[in-house]
Amino acid sequence: MDRLREKIALVTGAARGIGKACAERFIKEGAKVFITDIDANEGEKVAASMGATFFHHDVANEKQWQELPVEQLDILVNNAGITGLDLGPGDPEHASLESWHKIHEVNLDGVFLGCRWAIAKMKERGGSIINMSSRSGMVGIPGAAAYASSKAAIRNHSKTVALYCAEKGYKIRCNSIHPGAIWTPLWEIMVTDEKVKKSIESGIPAHRFGTPEEVAALATYLATDESAYVTGSEFTIDGGILAGSASAPGK
Fold it and tell me: Which superfamily, per CATH, for 8-237?
C-alpha cells in the first residue's frame, strides 16, 4: 500500500463523507495528508484519528488559501461543497439570489481558488488536481438549480485548468469526479426510512448506493503516477445511473 509514498496531499471538506474517505485512503497509500474543513471540532477529531494534519479553512476565503502553511504539494482534492438545502427553495423559479451566490461561492469559487493555489505550488515539480463535481453537474436538477450549475462549472473549469497547465508545460494534471447516489452523512439525514432507501436503490442499475470508499479508490488512481496520461477527463461513479437507464434493468 505505497502507491502515494513520499507524496503530499491536501483534501478539503475532509471532516466527513467522501473527503474523509479520500484522506484515509491516501494515508494508507503512504501519503502525508493535510485535511481542511470549516467544522473545526470534527476536523480535529478526524485528523487525529487518521494521522493527518488539520487546518480550519473556509474554501471560499481567498486569504485563508494564501495562509495555508503548506510549502510543497503533489495532490489537491477540491472536495468541499454545500448542497444549499438549508438555504430555502432551490428550484429556478423560487430560489433566492442570495442562496444562488452562496452555493456558487463555496462550490465554484472554492474550486477556482484551490486550483489557482495548487498550480503555484505544483508548477515546478508537477502534481494532480482532483475536483469533486457530481452527477448533478452532468444533468439538470429541477430542485437544486444552483447546486447543479456550480457542479457543471467545476466540470468545465477542470478541463480549462488541464489545458492551461499542458499549454504552459507544467506537469500538472486536472480531472473531475462525478459521484451520484453515494451513501454519505447527507443522505443519512435526508433518508431515514429504510423503505425509502430501498425504493431509491431500486432505480439505480447497480441496485445499491455507492460508498465514499469507492469514490476514494477512484481519487487514489487519479492521484497516483498510474494516471500520468490522464488529464482534462471526467469520471462518473454512480452505479450506472448516467449510462442512460431510468430504472434498474430487468433480471
Answer: NAD(P)-binding Rossmann-like Domain (3.40.50.720)
